[in-house]
Amino acid sequence: MRAYRIAYDGRPYYGFQRQPDVPTVEDAIFDALDALDVFTGEKPASYAAAGRTDAGVSALAQTIAFEAPDWLSPAALNSELPATVRAWASSDVPDGFHATHHATQRRYTYHLHAPEADAALAREAIQRLSGGHDFHNLTPDDDGTVRTLQVHLAVDGPFFVLTVSAGGFARQLVRRLVSLVAAVARDKRPLGDVERVLAEEPLDGPRGVAPAPAQPLVLAGVTYGPSDALPDGIGFDVDVEAAESARQVFEAARVEHVTAGRVAGQLVAGVDAAIDD
């Protein structure tokens, strides 16, 4: 089996997971593999992906794994992928590897344009949201709502850059968390609302928390081990040619709308760091 790191600009897609009648990142990947005669049927043997990003969400380190031929390098995969989706690293993985279940940590970043917001209030809200909680009021999911989050805030000019890490995430959890932090930092919700959101009582309607826009969100990292299943973890070999292709694609996108440009810039910086490593 082989695992691949995939970066993509999520704005043209209706999410990662394949859906009928709308373009998705997974459709683009499967179409490329089909054009290369890598598999027959609906999907490659033993295929799995690290996560299912929502419509508009981008990724630097989405990870897919499947039974791949030895010749299928990231550069070969890129030869049939659209420019908005780039493979840039790969690794041999043991039989039975599962890109979803064997991930030990996922990391998302969100670039929130908040020139008028109070960073001190944002940090206080983040401190209360960090750690283990039942986040049932920050997701439409009914199950898997108890999570342990690590949340960090960096202020970069008029932007708050929030980094959220956990072993896994309920649907829309990061975007709703960002929305809550932004409302507190902009003095649109009292700080005490954080405790109300984390309480057992369901908050619906105007008391609830809507998700922040998807476009500034990036799946920035997925870690595999060390763990019981993978004692030595997994290290990815960067394909320099493929990574340079990814860098050029996302560099071109940097000149667009300010937030989209920052997301593209983050993808460029992440690929550059991988090349340098």
How would you describe what is shown here?
- Helix content is 29%, strand content 24%.
- The protein is of the alpha+beta class.
- It folds into two domains: 2-102 and 224-276, Pseudouridine synthase I, catalytic domain, N-terminal subdomain (Alpha-Beta Plaits, 2-Layer Sandwich); 105-207, Pseudouridine synthase I, catalytic domain, C-terminal subdomain (Alpha-Beta Plaits), CATH 3.30.70.660.
- The two termini are 24 Å apart.
- 42% of the residues are buried.
- The model has no long low-confidence stretch (mean pLDDT 91).
Summarize this structure as a short list of keywords or feature phrases:
single chain; 277 residues; alpha+beta; Alpha-Beta Plaits; 2 domains; globular; PsdUridine_synth_cat_dom_sf; isomerase; PsdUridine_synth_TruA_a/b_dom; tRNA processing; PsdUridine_synth_TruA_C
Structural class: alpha+beta
Alpha-carbon Rg, integer: 19 Å
Q: What is the CA-CA span between the terminal residues?
A: 24 Å
CATH fold call of the largest domain: Alpha-Beta Plaits
- Helix percent reads 25-40%
CATH architecture of the largest domain: 2-Layer Sandwich
CATH class of the largest domain: Alpha Beta
Largest sheet report: 10 strands, mixed
CATH superfamily of the largest domain: Pseudouridine synthase I, catalytic domain, N-terminal subdomain
Shape: globular
Sheet-strand content, in percent, reads 15-25%
Q: Count the E strands.
A: 10
Which runs of at least 5 residues are low in confidence (pLDDT < 50)?
A: none
What string, H for helix and E for strand, traces the elements in order? EHEEHEEHEEEHHEEHH
